[in-house]
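2.7 Reproducibility. Because tokenized structures are sensitive to small changes in the input, we list the exact sequence used for HAD family hydrolase, including any N-terminal residues retained from the expression construct. No trimming or masking was applied before prediction.
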Amino acid sequence: MGSAGRAAVFDVDGTLVDTNHLHVVAWWEAFRQAGHDVPMHAVHRAVGLPSTDLVAHLLGEDRDTDQDAGISAGHKALYGQYFDRLPALPGAGDLLRRLHRDGWTVVLATSAGGAELGALRRAIDADEAITATASADDVDEGKPAPEPVEHALELAGVPAERAVFVGDTVWDMRAGSRAGVHCLGVLCGGIPRADLEESGADAVYADPAHLLSALDDGLLA
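Resulting structure tokens (single pass, no recycling of outputs):
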């Protein structure tokens, strides 16, 4: 892409930090406590949506919406138990540091905020490489709407055609595609390659370490 003004935008959960299955268990238990039997595989496919959208996706539009806030709060409390030990995915910090050294503006685009985002950043341990964070609090609509990615591009000061978005869910690929950026998928969030490709991934890698090892011949070269 040439060296002047280019942005590498990263989803965080399931892309840089190995949290998707922790989210699944926390959501499953929050639903159970509210009297809903939601299978874990269905929860897994919905991870990556903002909380209210995830609840709507899994319980349907005819649900008792008075329960939404309680279910989301339940998930937040249950997931919060893991904050001191969230595991980074292989190569996550090294990948961000390398891109930063190569002149990329690295921006995180995540639905996490506050203490959760702090815990994720501690896990990645590459703060010196991260220019900005676009959190769900900053936009009206989360993924798969393009807003989170567009907001990240604004923070980076880079047009869509000079940006690459890396994520692990179909929601990420749809958001990136709608924002007009090149999309790279990673398999470490547990979503199948075919699903990521159908949703807009230009290429798919195993995890951040694999992407780092292949930097010289891909979109992040």
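The two ends are 8 Å apart (CA to CA).
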